[in-house]
């Protein structure tokens, strides 16, 4: 029913592009990814300078397991809106997953320069730095993320929850006193 209403508004509205993006979001949320992508591309043909359209296109491409297309879309989003922290965050994550950790770190830092209080940017930068073995810098980024959002452990979801657990184990393994009583080190993990 919502789809029919969006289609009617698109046909009778002067703001075709915006309505198409809303319908694309509806399709994307319901798993109709190719239809969502087609609508976003139609909207971009009408109005090619919409950073949020490219941002959403990146999500659709990512869900379609097309990481290079997602990276390209998120790059265009930050070109059009240089202070778009969430787009930098997604772009950095996609670059890291594509094996481009240096580019991912640079992108996340650029996002932090634009939006220094975005929790996700700090957290993901910290996770990447820790994965690369840059323990002090990674710990500082994660600590900054938790300063911004101390409740994050309750809302980060299953994937980030698992990453947080791995992060904790890494911090303990390298000897940082992050457990109760200031304990840390391999001995603690071995029992």
Your description of this structure?
The protein has 191 residues and is mainly alpha-helical. The chain contains 12 helices and no strands. The longest helix is centred in the last third of the chain and has 17 residues. It is elongated and about 60 Å long. It starts with a helix and ends with a helix.
Record field, number of beta strands: 0
Percentage of helical residues? over 70%
Return the average pLDDT rounded to an integer: 83
Q: Characterize the main sheet.
A: none
Low-confidence segments: none
DSSP helix count? 12
Roughly how many Å apart are the termini?
58 Å
What gyration radius follows from the Cα positions, in whole Å? Answer: 20 Å
Shape: elongated
| Proportion of residues in β-strands | under 5%
Quaternary status: single chain
**Helices and strands: which structural class?**
mainly alpha
Topology as H/E string? HHHHHHHHHHHH
Quick description:
With 191 residues, the chain is mainly α.
